Amino acid sequence: MSEQAIQTAGQARLERGYRRILACYPRSFQRENEEEILAVLLDTAAEGQVRVGLAEVADLIRGALRMRLWPAAARPRAVRAAVTLMLAGAAAEVAVVFTMIVTAGRFKAAVAARDPPAAHAVAVHLGIDLAAAPVVIGIWLWLAWANGRGQDWARTGPG
Amino acid sequence: MQEATFLILTALAAGPQHGYGIITEVGQISGGRVKLRAGTLYTALERLRVDGMIGVDREEVVEGRLRRYYRLTPAGTAVLAEEAARLHANAAAALRRLNPGLAGGVA
Known about the structure:
Strand content of chain B: 15-25%
Strand content of chain A: under 5%
Shape of chain B: elongated
Helix content of chain A: over 70%
Structural class of chain A: mainly alpha
Distance between the termini of chain B: 22 Å
Number of strands of chain B: 3
Shape of chain A: elongated
Mean pLDDT of chain A: 85
Largest sheet of chain A: none
Largest interface: A-B, 25 and 20 residues
Oligomer: heterodimer
Order of helices and strands of chain A: HHHHH
Low-confidence stretches of chain B: none
Low-confidence stretches of chain A: none
Number of strands of chain A: 0
């Protein structure tokens, strides 16, 4: 292969890499801006670069998340507020799980000392709560995501 | 206003620019301190466009690649002027307090 052919192949590979990440962006953005942002990415790529850098991946994914979770597109303020609250719901659930994990040992020990027969029931409950938490977090994030995309049905909550 | 947004608007204050041009200008304006990445730039551009601060000036195809030029709208110009005045006033106040001897000298 000539040097130029190698260069072209490298650039084609880099372009495919960028396109794979750009597939995470909202459809409307892809339709309107994919070719444009791709040109900028290729312009800012280092000479001879064939792979998408880690920092580039992080930056592009962050952009995609921001556009999906906090879309700029003239959404009513209430929808934006709902999305923010849903993300807060997910964050609160994460905090609950964290607290449970940190305090579970002491809590179980205290129950076992005062009311040994209840110890088993407490352990089961904690287990169920911990198992359910990822589901709750997942539902909050999914609703926020769907709302960000303009799905009206998603303005409800896992409670 | 975030610094990146402020710098993007500043880059457009002198005239329309395309994406890569904005990145270069922002680098120059900030003395090489701020290196905008494409994801950050387009997230900001999208928001600015929806908020009516910028608009598409024109499109060109260079070497088979799309280039879209953006320009400040009158609303964007006003917002940038207001923010620049605010930052300027803050900076002047800070300098006055740091150098009380130079009463109103720097600003």
